[in-house]
Amino acid sequence: xxxxxxxxxxxxxxxxxxxxxxxxxxxxxxxxxxxxxxxxxxxxxxxxxxxxxxxxxxxxxxxxxxxxxxxxxxxxxxxxxxxxxxxxxxxxxxxxxxxxxxxxxxxxxxxxxxxxxxxxxxxxxxxxxxxxxxxxxxxxxxxxxxxxxxxxxxxxxxxxxxxxxxxxxxxxxxxxxxxx
Length: 180
Hints:
This protein has helices at 2-18, 43-48, 53-69, 157-172, and strands at residues 21-27, 38-41, 73-74, 80-97, 120-137, 143-152. Helix content is 31%, strand content 33%. It is elongated. It is α/β, with parallel strands linked by helices.
């Protein structure tokens, strides 16, 4: 029984590590999300995001696509305000590659054949980012939902738009929350 639980845990970890964007969401359980039908952006929040204006436009365009596909409309008198926040950091991975060592082996006949090898380390840095999408009740000005997505970033401009769409769509898959 313990082995089965352990194998289930290993499979779960393996499957979750395959996802390229890790997401999490939190929300106010007292809020009725069915009342929200329209949105606008909180300009002061969007302006504070420390990314290029081009990336801000990409994020906002992706949010528009997802929100419209969910039946929300953009409005001058919105039910909710959307704000974004970003974090970026360098992820450092060190791989230790061990070469051959001392020990028995096959060679010029049978017996003890010593051989020496060399190990080496490889260090890789990869930009990793987190995108927060905040949904704020327009009347009360209180945060009602926050989605967070973390994953590797690309500096390749041809792939950047697709990567941003992936971040936004994975985060907003959890909005509005399904309350059971």
